TrEMBL record:
InterPro entries: Ald_DH/histidinol_DH, Ald_DH_C, Ald_DH_N, Aldehyde_DH_dom, ALDH_GabD1-like, GABD/Sad-like. This is NAD-dependent aldehyde dehydrogenase. Residues 3-448 form the Aldehyde dehydrogenase domain. Belongs to the aldehyde dehydrogenase family. It holds the Pfam family Aldedh. CDD domains: ALDH_SSADH1_GabD1. Keywords: NADP, Oxidoreductase. It comes from Levilactobacillus paucivorans.
Length: 471
């Protein structure tokens, strides 16, 4: 396994890193376990200042932290800065809310004075992707640090500098040794760590392929998991949608982060009365992008993360066309060696086309024409995935009605899809299970320990009968 930064704009190999040695892995797990044993007895409040400090570091060092992302995986520098700021917001959110969220919950019960206490679960293993290298880490780190779960993590092989920069920021924020440890692991080593009896939880964000592999090992060892996987999110243009808003949002919903977002709109499902107007506007937007140096703030479309990803997407587009799809629009080639993928619009994708229902992770829009809103919902639901979605409709209320009929984890009505600290993030079907962020996100790796107390055994009629056999 080669952990390596190859700048996708210049194709320069910036740095290669060695895999973690077995000794370092063992040492890291031992430190994490030792910290867990300590943290079990420490109050949540003892960890809060570190999260606020971490947020401050992300705010103070936005520019330098953002550059690491852009060199590692090519995203536009403006989008990289946005990611850094979002990380600060997530750290602050859990710093502000963790104590309240994690306080014991009293339960009224005939058994006695009952309460549900939230304790750390233990050491966690996180496996994270390259498309938002800091944000994905912060989604896991901030809530679970507040809970008291130490984390070891394997980041994507192509974003090692981002992995190290995140670890370094956490250390500088004052987190104790063992709180968060980056490990450059091979897949086999990931399996070994997941199997290790000190590890109690496994969180993976990535593709269905990666999710299946890691969830399988976790399942064999009965480890709790969350899986945040891919999607083929629908962008529904209902019959009465405001087309000015649609035209403004649709291109961004596909091209943001060079189309490499799990919740990018990948299937535009457009009612027939709006179809021609929609296609023309999407084509105009796709043809006006400015590809170039992602460090240049005037660039509007970044290169893809790697040569491999570009080749995979090209193969998918070729296969779709060979299967009968129409390449309604392909951006004219540009004279640049960076890993740019020409924005492409595919239409006439039939159910038997290999591209139907497949995630295309880059600047390629699939556009479908449907006769009405019911047909749009039916097509949106005809997918193995269910992560996010966008609906544009004549009113927020009608849009929300349509949204509720989509089998998916998250939907935004009449607006851009955004991830924010307070909003639960996660999917259904092959998009995975569990939630990150928001209030739910903090409970994924918590031991919700029930404690029932009273001064003497419960011998009243109901309690004795229901709760315990009398011998
Ligand atoms: P990926 O190939 O599954 O990689 C994600 C992480 O899993 C990487 O660290 C990868 O390591 C690791 N991995 C993959 N196979 C593994 C195995 N057999 N054993 C151990 N580790 C393994 O995903 P990707 O293509 O990089 O990321 C893009 C995908 O992530 C898309 O499908 C996207 O939709 C999804 N995603 C989902 C969310 C969400 O929140 N739902 C967010 C972002 C992205 P290597 O890099 O070393 O291969």
């Amino acid at each position: 396994m080669a952990y390596q930064t190859t700048n996708p704009y210049t194709n320069e190999v910036v740095k290669t890193y060695e895999d973690a040695t077995p000794e370092y892995v063992e040492e890291s797990l031992a430190k994490a376990q030792k910290l867990y044993l300590k943290w079990r007895n420490d109050p949540v409040s003892s960890r809060i200042p570190v999260l606020h400090k971490l947020a401050q570091i992300f705010r103070d060092e936005t520019d330098s932290l953002a550059k690491v992302l852009t060199v590692d995986m090519g995203k536009l520098i403006g989008e990289a800065k946005g990611e850094v700021i979002l990380c600060a917001m997530i750290a602050d959110y859990y710093a502000d809310h963790a104590e309240e969220l994690l306080k014991p919950r009293a339960i009224e019960s005939i058994a006695g004075e009952a309460q549900l206490e939230n304790h750390p679960l233990g050491v966690m293993m996180a496996v994270e992707p390259w498309n938002f290298p800091y944000y994905q880490m912060m989604r896991i780190f901030a809530p679970n640090f507040a809970v008291g779960d130490p984390i070891v993590y394997k980041h994507a092989a192509i974003t090692p500098a981002s992995a190290l920069a995140f670890e370094d920021a956490v250390r500088r924020a004052g987190a104790p040794e063992g709180a968060l440890t980056n490990l450059f692991l091979s897949y086999d080593q990931v399996s070994d760590v997941v199997a290790d009896k000190r590890v109690q939880g496994v969180a993976l964000t990535g593709s269905e392929r990666g999710g299946v592999a890691v969830a399988k090992v976790a399942g064999e060892h009965l480890k709790k998991t969350t899986m945040e996987l891919g999607g083929v999110d629908a962008f529904i243009v209902a019959h009465d949608a405001n087309m000015t808003d649609v035209k403004n949002i649709a291109p961004r919903a596909r091209l943001y982060n060079a189309g490499q977002v799990c919740t990018s709109s990948k299937r535009f499902i457009v009612t027939e009365n709006n179809y021609d107007e929609f296609l023309a506007s999407l084509k105009a937007a796709f043809s006006s992008v400015k590809m170039g140096d992602p460090m240049d703030p005037s660039t509007t479309l970044a290169p893809m993360n790697s040569k491999r990803a570009k080749e995979k997407l090209q193969a998918q587009v070729d296969e779709a066309i060979a299967g009968g799809a129409t390449a309604y629009y392909v951006h004219e080639p540009i004279d640049d060696d960076g890993q740019f993928f020409m924005p492409t619009i595919l239409t006439n994708i039939t159910k038997d086309n290999p591209a139907y229902g497949k995630e295309m992770f880059g600047p390629v829009a699939q556009v479908y024409k449907v006769k009405d809103d019911d047909a749009a919902i039916a097509l949106a639901n005809d997918a193995d995935y269910g992560l996010g979605g966008i609906v544009f409709a004549g009113s927020a209320e009608y849009g929300a009605e349509l949204a509720s009929r989509i089998e998916t984890g998250m939907v935004f009505v009449n607006t851009f899809f955004s991830s924010l600290p307070e909003l639960e993030f996660g999917g259904v079907k092959k998009s995975g299970f569990g939630r990150e962020l928001g209030q739910s996100g903090i409970f994924s790796f918590v031991n919700q320990e029930l404690v029932v107390k009273r001064d003497h055994p419960n011998e009243d009629e109901t309690g004795g009968l229901v709760l315990a056999h009398k011998f």
